[in-house]
Amino acid sequence: MPITRRALGALAGIAACDVALSGCSDGPNDETAGDITIDDAHSVGAMDDFGVGVTFKATEPVEFSLMYRDHPNYPVQDDWSVFHHLEEDHNVTFARTDIPMADFDQKKSLLIGSGEASDIISVTYGGSETQFISGGAILAVSSYFDYMPNFQQKIKDWGLEADLENKRQADGRIYHLPGVREAPDVQYSVVIREDLWERAGVTEDPATWEEFREQLQKVKDANPELDYPMSDRWTDATTLGSLLSVMATNYDTVAGWGYANTFYDEDAGEYVFTGTTEEYKEVVSYAAGLVEAGLLDPEVTQSDDQAVQKFISGRSATISGNTQTLAEYRTKFADSGAGDVPIRLISIPGGPAGSKLPSGRFTSGILISSKAAEQPYFKALLQFVDWLYYSDEGLEFAQWGVEGETFTRDADGTRVLNEDIGWSSINAGAPKLLNADYGYSNGVFLLANGSSKDLVFSMMTDEIADWTERQLEGKEQVPTAPAPLLDEIELEQTSLLQTQLTDAVQAATAAFITGQRSIEDDWDAYVTEIEGLGASQLVETVNTALERARSESE
């Protein structure tokens, strides 16, 4: 899951060493964009007239090195359409270093740390770049924003200036290029079997999580053959990772996948330790109450396959899901011989803090190696990255492919995927897949579907588009929290604390939820344990950095 600045796990900036960039004039170490000029020696293949609305095509063939995350659902193929058209239409090829998704983060770190990073480092979440900055291996890309007109336009037009400022490190520069979204990313909630819920007389989505609990009880009473009304997935690595993450925003905290040790308290104007707040306790207590009442399967270390099988076989009536898994569940129901079982993704219930969506409209993005600035094609690389990831044309290409080959347009301009090509719920069962057979809608080239609302919605079925629109219209987004900029010493001081505190909180969370520990009897002892591991020290360091950042900005 992406890391947000509101839930800051002290993934803040550290001082970076100045990197001598061959062929580039030295720029001041300030916070302005475009403070370094790229000379002609490093502009091979670059366009003189590149700008918003201009298709990038290198003036001569260029080859960029690319650290490629190879997804098991769509293994990379040399003959993909995406590679063919980038070469034929844009004069761009890649020298790829293909890394399996399961090993990507580890091997990425090794390659960057050893100075062997590719020009373009794909699929990198914000915050993870801090570990590489002090070694000088990662480009301070904010020094070159003037060469990225599409990126600048999206930031301005979509009101993302404050979010971008939060990406600055202690040296005032930005190193991570994020995927950007016009509208908040909302995908996850809970999937229900409508037939079993209707048998209980429940036909409306719950307005709150408390109402959801009441509905689960009704489902249990009306369907005695169920093992549990809910048995959850995405819980083997992080206890109830998706469910707690979805719940937490409306309890004014973070949990599950979204957990981070420090959380910004808007009223107090400072960070607090997440895992010991009353809000976090409420979330844990809610989940523990479901288990105690027999409404939620206590097997919180089961695999996804086990949880899904319980749902498909009728042993449970509810499971976490998202806008993609609806198609997965329907296919599995059909394959099981159950036929067309009615299921739906419920609207995200509200909570004590209201009905909200998490902060932030940045998604996973890319890093650029500092060595790329030494290459003769450096300016062309920046133009290409700007076109592919941030221009309207490049985003459409990365998501839909090529008009006439993978899609057509209706008379009103609506994109229509070819009938023999499938993507998620669109053309389910088609013989070809847009990502696996063509290379489009691929997280390496399309940053977590980060783009315009129109383009995101264009890939949705009517059912998913309607659900998503209801979430966006009915909820407000939590504001982005200010980012404390930890320096290198502070980051080193807190790194060990972060790990041991997170591990302790997650272990206790699992124990409380499953009843191995009593919230009523053991919560105070747990808080004392967490304090003994350095919670106050961590929070004090983060807030000191926050105050320093505020003072420097005044």
Automatic annotation (TrEMBL):
Annotated protein name in UniProt: Extracellular solute-binding protein
Pfam families: SBP_bac_8 (PF13416)
Species for this entry: Glycomyces albidus
Family to which this protein belongs: Belongs to the bacterial solute-binding protein 1 family.
Listed GO CC annotations: cell envelope
Top-level division of the source organism's lineage: Bacteria
InterPro entries, alphabetized: Bact_solute-bd_prot1 (IPR050490), SBP (IPR006059)
Keywords: Signal, Transport
Localization per record: Cell envelope
SUPFAM superfamilies the record matches: Periplasmic binding protein-like II
Main location group: other
PROSITE patterns: PROKAR_LIPOPROTEIN (PS51257)
Lineage summary: Bacteria, Bacillati, Actinomycetota, Actinomycetes, Glycomycetales
